[in-house]
Amino acid sequence: MRGLVRRPLIFFILSLFLLFPSFFLYAQEDNQPCYGDAIIVGSIGEPITLVPILAADSASQDIVGLVFNGLLKYDKDINLVGDLAEDWEVSEDGLVITFYLRKGVKWQDGVPFTAEDVLFTYKKLVDPHTKTPYSGDFERIKKFEVIDDYTIKITYKQPFSPALASWTMPIMPSHLLKNEEDFKHFARHPVGTGPYRFIKWETGSKIVLEAYDEYFQGRPYIDRYIYYIIPDQSTLFLELKNRNLDYISLTPLQYQRQTNTEFFKKNFRKYRYLSFGYTYIGWNLNNPKFKDKRVRQAINYAIDKEEIIKGVLLGLGRVCTGPFVPNSWAYNPAVKPAEYNPEKARQLLALAGWKKKDKEGILLKGNERFEFTLLTNQGNVSRRKCAEIIQQKLREIGIKMHIKIVEWGCLLDLIERREFEAVLLGWGLSRDPDCYDIFHSSKTGPREFNFVSYKNKEVDRLLEEGRRVFSQSKRKEIYQKVHKLIYEDQPYTFLYVPDALPIIDARFRGIEPTINGIGYNFIKWWVPKDKQRFKR
Amino acid sequence: MLSYFLKRLFSLVPLLLGITFISFLIIHLAPGKPSYLKEMNPRISAEAQERLIRLYQLDKPILVQYIHWLKRVIKLDFGNSFADGRKVIVRIRERLPITLLINALSLFFILLFAFPVGIISSLKPNGVFDKCTTLFVFIGFSLPSFYLALLLMLLFGIKLGCLPISGIVSFNHSQLSSGERILDIAKHLILPVSVATFGGLAGFSRYVRANMIEVLKQDYIRTAYAQGIGRGRIVCKFALKNALLPLITILGLSVPGLLGGSVILESVFAIPGMGRLLYEATLSRDYPLIMGGVVIGAVLTLLGNLIADLCYAWADPRIRYQ
């Protein structure tokens, strides 16, 4: 009796097990991942090329990410961890990065992966005849040494901490591409080291991948990955409803209003997490109206971001407070979004000289009316709606804003020529917080990305330092300062960070949303045997 | 006749040159840049962008670029697509069959329905049948095709579950027998072809109707009636033959339409056809691919016109070309 009292928990479990043996057996089976089935992913876009160093669009990157590996990757907490590299070292002065590659990794055609492949990929990236958009980060390399088959030493011209992130670049097989001039064949028949092998691509309709049995991190559970290209959002949704698709991204409207039925609750799981990107208004700071910080701050007070999130995203997003999103380690939680306060906005405008109003109620400074045009791109409904809400809010404080919607290519042309007053755009962010190219004063030239011409010496200094320092805790301090300074300066009016809204068939298990989304552990997703839909 | 034909054929050459030159100019002068350069991605450095511009030879004067292009096209080489580096011809060829199939089928059905509708309406203009069919074909003409497509998808694909929603083949297509494959494709084509047919019915049926009404007013028809010839014979033999003549021109003009797909229908039904290809090419400023489409369109339009003219001469004894 004493014994039983001393171990009540064991006794309890034991008795449960005796009473309900089937429950435990079932539970165990249900938690044991098993192989098989296929996942059918629906996408609006079609990949352009499957050559990793050429792939610039997100559809291409979706497929490339499953077929190839980089030296490093981001884990569920957005930390860099080894992928094809087992380990790496950064020298004291930050100039030399040494990668120790994983041994025993095989390309999907059976040939071993070695340092030769990394060297080849690097050479192609910096080859002036390669049509790659990604040469920038790799041009900073002074010397690339292959020490032995599994060790690489890379010397940089200057310390460059985003270099580590740049080595998430997928590595290509040297033995297959050495003699291929322009990747023409490879672009549609890629061979990588990744969890899935490329099987076929039917142009305009689908791409089929199959699990690679000898994947070095273990074979993925799901046998096949099928990527359907359906260029229309409504059709995509109808196909999902017909259960012909397992995985699509929902629009806010579909998430909030069209997927709450019994049918969807039974057959699908919806996920919601903050995306890595934000929507903003960029002000042309060379324009005398927007040169004055107080004017930009006034506009920030005058725009009700909560209302925009409610109206445009149906509540599925969060107010953006700067160049970093809440899921990034560089995000500064101390920066609070300015409240909606039209009165304060009016005061700030008055301080900046916009005091009088004309007959129409538009603010005047001398003879100049406060009137400008906001540009945004065609085909993006949320941006259009967003612009309309802002137009009305600004009118309330006496600013007349016109909206001009232009085709994407034309919009970029106008931005490149700096022929704009304000643009409504979004940035999709990489996991590394380095935003030198967007906010450093040296990056205001044509074809460069500080197109608002933002200049702040302190921000410049911090951005430079952020690139020199490797320690994440030190970089965190630096970027949190950057965050605060940029929000104070308001070169952009930061609007919102939208939620990512994937929906996935309920038979898939092992999906664990983290701050890095859901895709990071895709090879661990699985379907219980009795629920599998596609047998081989 | 032959010399006339040859003369016309040769006169097409400068015309074609003119068309390509003006198109080339317009496409290159339009704002925007090709493929990668349209990505707004801070990882794409300014140097890399300039390198791409050099590699695509976009830094050369437009006239030089045009001459380069022309030199290749004379050898029937349309160059490589900017987007993925594959040959323009290959990219067009893989899209062509499905577009051709859908357009040919819908043209067939349009003619199949438009003729009876047009003829019967013309017998009693503004009669009950005429009014009903007019209403029907104009509904088809004015209803946005994407909306109709979505409604039909909802009805047949989801509510009734008897037709596939999108694409041209089923998921398990490769495992089917050849008979089943044809049936599979046919099932996928029902909705897009119906929508295209419904939308195109108005044009042809109204042409047939108008021509028939015109012809039925002619003196020789009255003469035929006076001679006591049966109505059926008058309509089908005397009137219809003459009413068909203007339609030759219209058919000739729809030749290029056979190869151009509808962007909207192809997007909604997820059909990998020409419309989507060229639309995407335009948005990404894929100049060689756009020009490939322009040349094909121009050649077909010119040839369609020529053939229509020749057919006209052959069918109508009143017309003779010198």
Please explain how this structure is put together.
- The complex is a heterodimer of chains A (536) and B (322).
- With 536 residues, chain A is α+β, with helices and mostly antiparallel strands.
- In chain A, the strands form six sheets. In chain A, strands 13, 14, 15, 19, 20, 21 and 22 form a seven-stranded mixed sheet that branches.
- Chain B is mainly α and 322 residues long.
- Chain B has a domain at 96-267: MetI-like (MetI-like fold).
- Chain B contains 13 helices and no strands.
- In chain B, helix 5 (128-142) packs across helix 7 (178-216), helix 6 (145-159) packs across helix 7 (178-216) and helix 7 (178-216) crosses helix 9 (231-253).
- Chain B is globular and about 85 Å long.
- The mean pLDDT of chain B is 86.
- Classes of the chains: A alpha+beta (536), B mainly alpha (322).
- The interface between A and B is large, with 55 and 57 residues.
Biggest β-sheet strands, sense, barrel of chain B: none
Question: Which CATH class of one domain in chain B applies here?
Answer: Mainly Alpha
Are there runs of chain B of 5+ residues with pLDDT below 50, and where?
none
Order of helices and strands of chain B: HHHHHHHHHHHHH
CATH structural architecture of one domain in chain B: Orthogonal Bundle
Strand-residue fraction of chain A? 15-25%
- Strand residue percentage of chain B: under 5%
Number of strands of chain A: 23
- Determine the N-to-C terminus distance of chain A: 56 Å
What is the alpha-carbon Rg of chain A in Å?
26 Å
Unreliable stretches of chain A, pLDDT < 50, 5 or more residues?
Answer: 1-6, 8-14, 16-28
Please give the number of β-strands of chain B.
Answer: 0
The percentage helix of chain A is: 25-40%
Looking at the structure, the CATH topology of one domain in chain B is MetI-like fold
Kindly list the characteristics that best describe this protein:
heterodimer, A: 536 residues, alpha+beta, seven-stranded mixed beta sheet, four-stranded mixed beta sheet, 20 helices, 22% strand, B: 322 residues, mainly alpha, MetI-like fold, 13 helices, globular
